[in-house]
Amino acid sequence: xxxxxxxxxxxxxxxxxxxxxxxxxxxxxxxxxxxxxxxxxxxxxxxxxxxxxxxxxxxxxxxxxxxxxxxxxxxxxxxxxxxxxxxxxxxxxxxxxxxxxxxxxxxxxxxxxxxxxxxxxxxxxxxxxxxxxxxxxxxxxxxxxxxxxxxxxxxxxxxxxxxxxxxxxxxxxxx
Length: 175
Known about the structure:
The chain is mostly helical. 73% of the residues lie in helices and 0% in strands. The termini are far apart.
C-alpha cells in the first residue's frame, strides 16, 4: 500500500466512523473486517521487516564452546529460501472492497441527505401550520371532503352520535 494510503488509514478515527454508520450494519461490518485485515497485514509486514536481520554466527562460535551446534544452525539458516509472493491479486481485492465501501458510503450519504430534506420540509410544514383552535369547518371539509358525506348519511339515519366516541372520550357530566 502506498504511503498516502497508509497515512489515510492510520488517521481514521474508527470509533467515530462506527458510531456514525451504526444504523447501517452491513457498512459497519465491512469496514470492521477491512480494518482488521489491514491491521493483520500491517502487523505481518512489520514482523517481516524486523525478521530479516543477519545472524552473526562468528560471535556465537566465539561465545559457545560447542561450535558444532552453531555450524548446524548456520547450515539450516542458509538453506532457507525466502520466496517472494505476488500480492497483486490481494491488492486488487482490497481495491475492489474499498470501491464497494466507498460506493456504499456515498449511497448512505445520499439517503441521509434525502431523509434530512424530507424532515426539514416536515418541520417547515409543522411550523407553518395553524393551531387547531383556529381551524374552521370549511378547512376540515377542504382537507377531508368525505366528512360531509358521512355527516349527511348520519343525519338521514337519525344518528347524532359517532360510534365509539363515548368509549374514547367519556362524558364528564355527573349524574
